[in-house]
Give the backbone structure.
Amino acid sequence: MGILDNVRIVLVETSHPGNIGASARAMKNMGLGRLYLVRPRLFPHAEASARASGADDVLANARLCDTLSEALGGCTLALASSARGRTLSWPQLSPNECAKKVMVEGPGRDVALVFGRERCGLSNSELDLCHALVHIPANPSYASLNLSAAVQILCYELYVASANNLTASSADGDPMAEIQRVEQFYIHLEQTLTALEFLDPSNPKYLMRRLRRLFNRVRLTGKEVNILRGILTATQRGISR
């Protein structure tokens, strides 16, 4: 099983079925086959099949999900492609850096490339589930890429990186924590900070989002999540006493 078999392409609330089909074609061109669709407007659809141009197996095996969180189930890394401007910036990667980062996760670990809506991209709450933004350089005066074109570019970079065998493993063999486990840690952290009166839930500002960025830079392993949650549990016990 190759590294590309561990990569899933996630399309969030795609409006045009033709973009789903063209994305499936781009995936199959580059050796990827795992397509996840979060609340697509129209699917299945004849236009998707027509634009897939032979990648019908990718469409047939596509998984429909109600939420992005569901689509990321089991993943240890999620990288988002979105052109929207943000009040609070996210860590950014180039397409080449994105591919290298995916390869570094190593075999046996699911990773996701997430693409937002054609008109408005991804919401901030959806980006909270991702570790970094992938920025595709383009003409500044006309930088809006078609969804399937963005999928094609990132899939191409993955294919090249995979062909060059750019893989690595963690130093101590401790696998990265799955996104759901890290999300549970964030919930636990927010509860503890509220109990400590460090976080005002009525006026949270950007505290939790900044903490997410901090831990996303570190990339928590499963053991590290267990340690941190143990510290939070001990803190909550101390507060209750």
The longest helix spans residues 222-240.
